[in-house]
Amino acid sequence: EIVLTQSPGTLSLSAGERATLSCRASQRVSGNYLAWYQQKPGQAPKLLIYGASSRATGIPDRFRGSGSGTDFILTISSLEPEDFAVYYCQQYGDSLYTFGQGTKLEIK
Amino acid sequence: QVQVVQSGAEVKKPGSSVKVSCKTSGGTFSNSIISWVRQAPGQGLEWMGRIVPIVEVPLYTHKFQDRVTITADKSTDTAYMELSSLTSDDTAIYYCAISRNSWYGSDNWGQGTLVTVSS
């Protein structure tokens, strides 16, 4: 089972700033099948990025995924008020999928 | 657009079982990958297992392998997750998550089903 470690656990930033979230895998993620999800309180997760770098339908271009192998990054270029939420990475390259523990992006 | 509707909240006794349903519409159910994910109060997302209805063979993460059963009914486009031998640690919101194919990620989620285990 692939273990995903996200950092930092909490990120405190202001609107307009750039956010950089990290996701490191315990072994190579096959096909770079790495997704990023956003979750707001009381809501189901929302797919942002799939295949490490492809934006899902309707996702603004301020969200950018990058990386390959074992190291992946989600960058939000200029934070909007609605971007403050919890972000999870997930690998789905292995037959058994796994999630990271999440990064909480909070308003500074 | 795929619609995903889960069954309602459940309250269960320790040692019992729960079965949650996930009905989809507007997509190609048989070829989708349907995952079940749970989230304990204040905690992160935990992937439990998945099924591709047309293949019918489920895969479970090791933690739940002995207690979870995931099935899919192609005639009604409905997936099910049954969890047995419940304890208070199983109190969580259970989500079904749909992937249109193997490389896309889960882009459609149910609203979640709260399962509370309490004596």
Give a description of the structure.
- The complex is a heterodimer of chains A (108) and B (119).
- Chain A is mainly beta and 108 residues long.
- Chain A has strands spanning 4-7, 10-13, 19-25, 34-39, 46-50, 54-55, 63-68, 71-76, 86-91, 98-99, 103-107.
- In chain A, the strands form 2 sheets. In chain A, strands 2, 4, 5, 6, 9, 10 and 11 form a 7-stranded mixed beta sheet that branches. Chain A has a 4-stranded antiparallel beta sheet with strand order 1-3-8-7, with no helix packed on it.
- Chain B is built from no helices and 11 strands.
- Chain B has strands at 3-6, 10-12, 18-25, 33-39, 46-51, 59-60, 68-73, 78-83, 92-99, 106-109, 113-117.
- In chain B, the strands form 2 sheets. In chain B, strands 2, 4, 5, 6, 9, 10 and 11 form a 7-stranded mixed beta sheet that branches.
- The model of chain B has no long low-confidence stretch (mean pLDDT 96).
- The A-B interface holds A 1, 31, 33, 35, 37, 39, 44-47, 49-51, 56-57, 86, 88, 90, 92, 95-102 and B 35, 37, 44-47, 50, 59-62, 95, 97, 99, 102-107, 109-112.
Short description:
The complex is a heterodimer of chains A (108) and B (119). By secondary structure, chain A is mainly β. Chain A is 0% helix and 49% strand.
Question: What's the SSE blueprint?
Answer:
The complex is a heterodimer of chains A (108) and B (119).
Chain A: E1 4-7, E2 10-13, E3 19-25, E4 34-39, E5 46-50, E6 54-55, E7 63-68, E8 71-76, E9 86-91, E10 98-99, E11 103-107
Parallel strand pairs in A: 2-11
Antiparallel strand pairs in A: 1-3, 3-8, 4-5, 4-9, 5-6, 7-8, 9-10, 9-11
Chain B: E1 3-6, E2 10-12, E3 18-25, E4 33-39, E5 46-51, E6 59-60, E7 68-73, E8 78-83, E9 92-99, E10 106-109, E11 113-117
Parallel strand pairs in B: 2-11
Antiparallel strand pairs in B: 1-3, 3-8, 4-5, 4-9, 5-6, 7-8, 9-10, 9-11
